[in-house]
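ARCHIVE CARD
Drawer: 12
Card no.: 0347
Subject: one protein chain, sequence and derived structure
Cross-reference: see card 0346
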Amino acid sequence: MEFRKKSGSSLCYACGKLNRVDAAVCFYCGRRNPGLWGFGASIGRLVGEFDFTRAVIAVCVVAYVVSLLLDLPAATRMRGAFGILSPGTVALNALGMTGAYAWAHGAWWTVLTAIYLHGGLLHLLFNLLWVRQLAPEVEDLFGRARLTVIWSASGALGFIISDVAGVPLSIGASGAIFGLLGALVTYGRSRGGTFGVAIMRQYGLWALILFVLGFLMPGVNNLAHAGGFAGGCLAGAALGSRERRPDRAVDAVLAAAALLLTAVSFALALWTAFAP
């Protein structure tokens, strides 16, 4: 199967209507290169076959194990029930922990890498349970590509807000998880009716409970939670659900860009930490 289609027809990435794959301008909406130089269909297939929920869980688990192995003495030091198997600060910094210091020194990539880092076994398990619960729900309503964008954008926005506000160190997927809740609340509000109201109330209540719990537990980055929720609401409204419009190539392109940027961010974190 060719990755690049050189002839025939292709759907415009913007409006979803049929054009020639080599058309310079979409006949319907006027966007340039509607076939994305022949790569649009392949990008859509790759993102469509990508199981984002499992990938997030796998990356979080691998990053956690690596963070333990990088500093075993720190990882095995007893710090109480919430500190069981907690990676050391040096290891987390090497993998891309974010915070005011990192942001002030131009380490922008940490707002993406920190989403996949966790400070202990209970922290990891708690967040992955929420990922497993919420991500498939968002995928059903928004599609896999838009789920990828909502996750990445809301998690990054939450950390940007907390970094700028001066939170010194921060890690964890909870900002992105609040983003999933925000997208679900936005969907429920826009859909309306009995079903929409039920969705908005259920996930809005979950978000409120988790946000309140954040104030009762030490070390929780509530600014990242609030920023992630706002990011999820904004992304959900901007992208729209499947009920508002079908999946388009532009969604797959945005998702591929988010995944590529995340991979580049991890590469930059490792290069900064270990390059001679």
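Annotation on reverse: The first helix runs from residue 40 to 49. The longest strand covers residues 9-11.
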